[in-house]
């Protein structure tokens, strides 16, 4: 894989099955008093949220707090005696493993350009996330792959949990949403709390529900880091190399040819900014795996928009085969979509000609 750690790609598959087995079989111990044989981590009792469920999973995955006992309490005298305290206690002090975010004056963020206020999940991930990723893939914590995964997993997984717990809207708008979406991890974990109509509301049953919440949050976290290691990081390496060689394809620098099929849309916008690419990429050319024809796709104006930076020419849209070839003056054309966001040609040379002609249109 281009630019991708051989060590990381080789050991991914060995860890994937093992990891799922370990997450599902982990024993989450609960205690009301400290056990001298193990470290003890505290979080609040009562209704739980996704952030402390994930935070507890993360901290118990570290070497320092491996399989630590969990105490759920709001008693300051109890919390003061513990080795780590998450989401309660009114203190953020990583030197003492105190990770609360509710206190007045708290404004901690992840850094690296992120501005979302952290929850207990983000605080623990900021402190220990790189260690967990390095350990999972048997890499040095300073390895470049570890750093890239550390940032990517925060952006694509942990940040949403931080934002949801801190009540931060995803969009800068006061308009009501067009539809209800209650399928996020934070909402699914929230539904694991004891229902108000349940006749049994004991602390033991609360702890059992929290144990399940940790397992659910932890399993999805591990799935996220493995997806980013197996799929996201190799694709990023491919796109980075293709962007770097774009001027070898066309002197405009606005056409990129994908040397291997991969989910390039996840990366092109971030890498353009990081690599200071100007002018921006207008078209991406790649071979269709099923038909073996070549595709020319117009790049969207942004990751969340359908509008293209430069759609294929209007006179081509909706045409196919010979009719399209006649309109373009380019042989072997296959189609152009009605919106102009994608088209096809039987050959690489034909797809490149369509891109070059579209640039000048």
TrEMBL record:
It comes from the Eukaryota. InterPro entries: MYG1_exonuclease. It holds the Pfam family MYG1_exonuc. This is Metal-dependent protein hydrolase. It comes from Salix suchowensis.
């Amino acid at each position: 894989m281009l630019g991708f750690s051989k060590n990381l790609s080789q050991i991914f598959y060995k860890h994937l099955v093992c990891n799922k087995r370990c997450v599902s079989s982990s024993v989450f111990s609960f205690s009301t008093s400290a056990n001298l044989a193990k470290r003890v981590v505290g979080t609040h009792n009562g209704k739980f949220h996704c952030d402390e469920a994930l935070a507890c999973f993360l901290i118990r995955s570290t070497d320092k707090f491996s399989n630590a006992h969990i105490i759920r309490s709001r008693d300051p005298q109890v919390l003061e005696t513990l080795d780590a305290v998450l989401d309660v206690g009114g203190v953020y002090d990583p030197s003492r493993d105190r990770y609360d975010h509710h206190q007045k004056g708290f404004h901690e963020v992840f850094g690296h350009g992120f501005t979302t206020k952290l929850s207990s999940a983000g605080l623990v991930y900021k402190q220990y996330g790189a260690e967990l990723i390095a350990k999972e893939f048997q890499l040095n914590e300073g390895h470049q792959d570890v750093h890239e995964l550390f940032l990517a997993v925060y952006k694509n997984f942990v940040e949403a949990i931080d934002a949801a717990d801190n009540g931060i809207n995803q969009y800068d708008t006061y308009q009501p949403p067009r539809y209800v979406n209650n399928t996020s991890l934070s909402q699914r974990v929230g539904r694991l709390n004891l229902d108000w109509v349940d006749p049994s509301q004991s602390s033991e049953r609360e702890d059992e529900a929290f144990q399940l919440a940790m397992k659910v949050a932890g399993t999805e976290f591990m799935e996220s880091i493995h997806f980013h290691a197996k799929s996201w990081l190799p694709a990023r390496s491919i796109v980075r190399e293709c962007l770097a060689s774009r001027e070898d394809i066309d002197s405009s620098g606005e056409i990129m040819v994908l040397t291997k099929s991969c989910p390039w849309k996840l990366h092109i916008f971030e890498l353009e900014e990081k690599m200071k690419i100007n002018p921006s990429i207008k078209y991406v050319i790649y071979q269709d795996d099923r038909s073996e024809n070549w595709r020319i796709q117009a790049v969207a104006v942004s990751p969340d928009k359908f509008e293209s930076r430069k759609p294929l020419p209007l006179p081509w849209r909706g045409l196919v085969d010979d009719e399209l070839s006649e309109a373009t003056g380019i042989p072997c054309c296959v189609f152009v979509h009605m919106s102009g966001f994608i088209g096809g040609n039987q050959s690489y040379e034909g797809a490149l000609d369509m891109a070059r002609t579209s640039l000048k249109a």
